[in-house]
Structures are given as C-alpha cells and as structure tokens.
C-alpha cells in the first residue's frame, strides 16, 4: 500500500463488518423494525459538522459506522415484519453477491465481450427472469437492468413516445422526439400523446413529466374503470376513446398497472386491453413492479399471464425478488425503440465508447439455447439501451438469487407471502376494531371483488380509539402500530379516505413465528391497550 493511502488494517475491519452482518442476519426476526428516536438523535449528533483535513483511516471509520451511524437507520427493513411500501428483503445469495459486486466494482457500460463476460451475464440474467415468468425469451428482445421501476417506467414512456410519433399522420414518417425535439406541426393535437390508465403508480406521472409528455391530468387520464370492477378497464369506454384518438391522430399509451399499490389488486382483462391496444395502434405499457410476480402462485397466474402481450414491461428486482437496492428490469418488444433514444448517431458518440467486438466473432453458443437467447457478442452495450453510462454490476446479486432459489424457491416466497397476507386479512375481517378494505377471502369466486395478493388494506372502526370520524385516524393508527417497533405498516388513502396498508414481500416472513406477533400488536392497538414494544 502506498503510505499516503489511509488503509489501516483492512483485514480486521473486513472481519468486523462480516461479524456485524452475521450477527444482524441472525437477529433480523427480533430486531426492532425502526430505531428509537434517541438512537436517531445520537447518530445525527455524532456526524462531523465539517470535513476534517486529515482522514481517520479505514479501521476507525468502520468502527464509527458500526457503533454510531448504523444504530440510527432502519434496523430491520429487510426483516420479516416490515410491511411498509413494498420492500422485499435480501436473500442470502443476493447479499453475498452484492458484496462481491461491490468489491469488483466493474462498470457494466460497454459490451467488451473479449475482456469481460459481465454484459453477457447481465443479458442471461434478464433471460432467466423471463423463464421464471414463463414468458418466451423471443417476445422481449429489448431488455435492460435499471435502478428500479421508476426508471423502467421512464424507459417505457420514452419508447412509447417515439414509437407513436414515428407513425403520427401529422408528422413526417419516422419523426423522433429523441432526435428532433418536441413536435410542432400546427395540425398536431394538443397534447400529442395521452396516457390512459387506472390507478397509475405515482412514478408514471414522474416518468411522463421527465420524458416531456406532461405528468398532469390533461395527459394522464384515469377515467376508465369498469363500474362493476374498479381495477379493470371498462372495455367499451376504452374502445370508444381509442377510436376517437385514432381519428384525430393522437398517440395513446395504455398504461396497465399489474398490481395496484394500495390493494395489491389486479384487473381482469389484460388480454382484452392488449387486443384493443394493438387494434387501434396504441402502445401498451404494463407496470408490474411487484404484481408481475404474483402469478408465481398458480391460482393468480390468470391475472398476470398476459404480460407478454405488452409493448413494454416494468418489473422490480428489489421488491418481491428480494435482491438489494437498487435493481429494476425493463423489457420491450422493440429493441430499436431503446437504441433510437439512447444510441446517439455514431458520428457524435465518443470513440472510446465504441466497442471493438466486430473484429472477432463472439464465443460459440450451444445450439440448444431457447429462441431469443442473445450471444455474448450480440448483447447491445448497456449504455445504448439505458439512461446511465457508468453502471453498477446489478445483475450479479439477481443471478445469484435466481440460481440459489430456482423457480420453486421463488414460487414458495410469493405463495407464503400471499397466504400470510390472507391470514391477516381473515383476522381483520372478523375483528371488531378493524374493517378490511380489500375484501373477502372468497374473492376468487366473487367477480367484482378485488384480488388482493400480498397486501392487506384496512382501517379502524368506531369501536377503536381511531374512529373513521377523525380525519387523521389512519395516520394515528399507523403511528400507534409502528411505535411498537415490532412491525411496520404504511398510511395511505383509498376511495378518498385514510387507510393503512400492509404489504408482505420478504422471504423471511413466516406464519408460524410472525402471524402471532402481528395479530397481538393489531389487537392491542385496536383495543387501545398498552402495546408491547420491542426494546
Ligand atoms: C414500487 C412501484 C413503482 C416504483 O418503483 P421503484 O422501484 O420504487 O422505482 C412503480 N410502479 C409500481 C406498481 C410499484 O409498485
């Protein structure tokens, strides 16, 4: 080591980190979900107020992080009773691979297949995810690993935007917003593109504003639900709209949320929506961030199986697949829709970014690989199909997790999580203190009911200390539950009223151990009793 590098004894610090991780992994089921407020305060007061001139070295820094900094952050977000947002945990294989990924620190940006297998590994990982979902590899030849579903939704809307404008009757054939800027033809309808959706995730609005479509209600229109089934498109109304928009030559993106975030529910007509979209030239974007995996439980597969009819598809790795942040997946039928946006004309791409793989053919591939498998030489350089240039080797933890669990392991996680959510829902539906808002365990037979998958949505009744007459009841209820520090839920709103949602997505959640704790906390809070708290 050069003497100027403040390395200290890296080996002993590494051991310290490993033993901290080991100890924490072993106690995830008993750790409090969130730190105490005094822990947060002492972490904050330990932070340096300005950067010192001389560093303290690796060993002192590592001890400081473990002793002073980490106690002030979430203690068990990847533990079995953290049900806020949809967070998932980290499978052991993914955790180890993520550490390895960090230690190699490879930049997976350009396909340099004669120097590294990393882009081919990323590509194969994207193919294995399609295998997990029983989607033919050849359906989605445009694929990339992103930072999450928000980035994937952004890619989807960007691809849709250019694909739709290239066919606009008001613009020169092949018009590209990416290349030519916002279109200005006087005959072009305003807005030139609308997004028709039901309960879209908030990130759709961010994505639409980022790619220049506009993220407000003039562009994102959410008016089309079936009167009998609030999570399904009204097909007649959808067809009417598609007809009108086609007549005026406006582009339409149909955005189908596969897994509504408050209820975990699904629409029932993705196949029909896909048919109509195709017929009228609309682009179908499916946001299946977490819900795309629900069909791994066979009885829910009918709600997800038509994902392969999408023009673009968003999935998350860091939610239900239980790999570390950050990891999202993006798929499209049209590789060119990505490269049109992210691969600048060769004249302006700096020469050092061009890969030199034309000189020799790629590695031989065995001929029995499924159709749609991309060989190492043919993988597009990630920087030409994605937002980032420099990129983390995110595929490694995802690959490791897929290898360690196989399809069966993932089916087991999804099924256990859904069954756990159903057990909680059942208890809530029988409790005097609570009302279940995404109803009934017999949902599979009742046509209009929400299909709740892994989320339990509820509020307190007038028989609890959090009556619906109090407009802040759900926020107070959420705080009372979370103050136990034995479990964690999110406050939300549903049908205009406050509600609490509990999303089960961690591979560690176990009915035998965790259900009793969850029901005890809910019971104590709902009756206004003294709540047992984690230390
Ligand atoms: C979580 C989620 C998103 C946003 O995903 P990030 O990975 O947090 O960027 C988008 N859509 C849906 C349906 C989600 O559940």
TrEMBL record:
Coiled coil segments of this chain: none
Essential cofactor(s): pyridoxal 5'-phosphate
Keyword Nucleotide-binding: no
InterPro entries: Aromatic_deC, PyrdxlP-dep_de-COase, PyrdxlP-dep_Trfase, PyrdxlP-dep_Trfase_major, PyrdxlP-dep_Trfase_small, Pyridoxal-P_BS
Highest taxon listed in the record's lineage: Eukaryota
Key words of the record: Lyase, Pyridoxal phosphate
GO biological process: carboxylic acid metabolic process
Gene3D superfamilies in the record: Aspartate Aminotransferase, domain 1, Type I PLP-dependent aspartate aminotransferase-like (Major domain)
GO cellular component, one term: cytoplasm
Chain positions found as N6-(pyridoxal phosphate)lysine: 319
GO molecular function: carboxy-lyase activity; pyridoxal phosphate binding
Family statement drawn from the similarity comment of this UniProt entry: Belongs to the group II decarboxylase family.
Protein name: PLP-dependent transferase
């Amino acid at each position: 080591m050069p003497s100027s590098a403040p390395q200290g004894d890296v080996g002993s610090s590494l051991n310290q980190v490993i033993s901290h991780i080991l100890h924490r992994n072993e106690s995830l089921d008993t750790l409090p979900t969130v730190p105490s407020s005094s822990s947060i305060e002492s972490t904050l007061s330990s932070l340096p107020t300005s950067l010192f001139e001389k560093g303290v070295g690796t060993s002192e820094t590592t001890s400081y992080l473990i002793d002073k900094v980490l106690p002030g952050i979430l203690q068990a977000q990847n533990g079995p009773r953290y049900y806020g947002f949809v967070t998932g945990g980290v499978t052991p294989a993914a955790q180890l691979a993520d550490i390895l990924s960090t230690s190699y620190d490879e930049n997976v940006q350009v396909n340099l297949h004669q120097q590294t297998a990393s882009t081919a590994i990323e590509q194969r990982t994207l193919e294995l995810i399609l295998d997990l979902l029983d989607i033919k590899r050849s359906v989605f030849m445009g694929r990339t690993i992103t930072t999450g579903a928000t980035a994937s939704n952004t890619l989807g809307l960007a691809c849709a935007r250019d694909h739709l404008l290239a066919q606009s009757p008001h613009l020169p054939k092949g018009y590209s917003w990416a290349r030519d800027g916002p279109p200005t033809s006087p005959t072009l309808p305003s807005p030139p593109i609308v997004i028709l959706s039901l309960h879209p995730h908030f990130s759709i609005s961010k994505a639409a504003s980022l790619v220049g479509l506009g993220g407000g209600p003039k562009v994102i229109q959410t008016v089309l639900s079936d009167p009998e089934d609030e999570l399904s498109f009204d097909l007649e109304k959808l067809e009417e709209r598609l007809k009108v928009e086609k007549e005026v030559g406006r582009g339409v993106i149909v955005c189908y949320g596969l897994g509504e975030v408050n209820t975990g529910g699904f629409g029932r007509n993705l196949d029909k929506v896909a048919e109509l979209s195709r017929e009228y030239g609309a682009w179908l974007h499916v946001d299946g961030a977490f819900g795309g995996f629900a069909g791994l439980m066979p009885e829910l597969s009918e709600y997800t199986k038509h994902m392969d009819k999408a023009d673009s598809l968003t999935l998350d790795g860091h939610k239900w697949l239980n790999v570390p942040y950050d990891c999202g997946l993006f798929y499209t039928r049209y590789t060119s829709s990505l490269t049109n946006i992210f691969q600048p004309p060769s004249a302006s791409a700096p020469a050092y970014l061009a890969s030199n793989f034309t000189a020799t053919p790629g590695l031989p591939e065995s001929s029995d690989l499924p159709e749609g498998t991309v060989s190492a030489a043919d993988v597009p350089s990630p920087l030409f199909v994605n937002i980032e240039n420099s990129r983390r080797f995110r595929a490694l933890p995802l690959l490791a997790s897929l290898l360690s669990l196989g399809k069966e392991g993932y089916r087991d996680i999804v099924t256990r999580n859904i069954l756990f959510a159903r057990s909680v829902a059942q208890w809530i539906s029988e409790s005097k203190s609570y009302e279940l808002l995404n109803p009934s365990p017999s949902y599979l037979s009742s046509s209009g009911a929400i299909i709740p998958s892994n989320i339990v949505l509820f509020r307190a009744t007038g028989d609890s200390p959090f009556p619906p007459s109090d407009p802040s009841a759900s926020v107070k209820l959420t705080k009372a539950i979370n103050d136990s520090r034995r479990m964690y839920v999110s406050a939300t709103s549903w049908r205009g009223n406050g509600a609490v949602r509990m999303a089960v997505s961690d591979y560690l959640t176990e009915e035998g151990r965790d259900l009793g704790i969850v029901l005890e906390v809910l019971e104590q809070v709902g009756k206004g009793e003294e709540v047992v708290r984690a230390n």
